[in-house]
Design a protein that fits this description.
2 domains; At4g14100-like; alpha+beta; 12 strands; signal; outer membrane lipoprotein receptor (LolB), chain A; twelve-stranded antiparallel β-sheet
């Protein structure tokens, strides 16, 4: 009788292990691979940018509704501020507001500003701890890694490899719906000479 009881115990234990494995595999199968959230149509974000040792504070204003993006860039311990206004038509203005320098470069990038769904088609790499956040991680076109907080779906960080340099961006604030007043988007007159 003891052998029969022992056999039943082993069989029932194996059955429990099998059922728990089956339950675990079905819960994994029912959790599809996450997709990155689309960017909101308008937001403001304060970001810290490290370009292989060059630190920058960037005020990022994204306004897809009006087809524009603005980066206000200040390098560490510098009083110089660079404005980078990008338009959806592909035109970008890089300028300073220093009345003595009046520097401006106009460039054309045919793609325009990033679309809210710019991460469509990115490859999911899994979850990682970034700073203090558990993030889903995606890779886009082999040189962009994007980290999104699992709970809030807010961007936490992105890393871009370009040439010999790494561009690491840490998101400090993320204000959905924030809009910069229209006059602040206008490049100065000396950009149009």
């Amino acid at each position: 009788m003891e052998k029969a009881s022992m056999g039943l115990l082993i069989i029932s234990s194996l059955l429990l292990v099998f059922l728990s494995l089956l339950s675990h595999s079905s819960s994994v199968a029912s959790n599809p691979t996450p997709t990155p959230s689309e960017w909101p149509l308008q937001f403001h974000s304060l970001i810290w940018h490290n370009r292989t040792g060059i630190l920058q504070k960037v005020d990022l204003w994204y306004d897809f509704i009006n087809g524009r993006n603005l980066n206000i860039i200040q390098e560490q311990l510098s009083s110089d501020v660079l404005y980078d206004v990008e338009w959806n038509n592909g035109t970008s203005f890089f300028y300073t507001l220093d009345p003595y320098k009046k520097e401006c470069n106009v460039m054309y990038f045919p793609v325009g500003i990033l679309r809210p769904n710019w991460l469509d088609g990115a490859t999911y790499l899994g979850q990682r701890m970034v700073d203090i956040f558990l993030c889903n991680v995606w890779e886009k076109v082999d040189f962009i890694r994007y980290y999104e907080d699992v709970g809030t779906k807010r961007p936490v960080k992105w890393v871009i490899f370009q040439g010999q340099a790494w561009y690491t961006t840490h998101v400090m604030t993320f204000e959905v719906g924030a809009v910069l007043d229209d006059p602040n988007w206008q490049a100065p007159l000396y950009c149009f000479r």
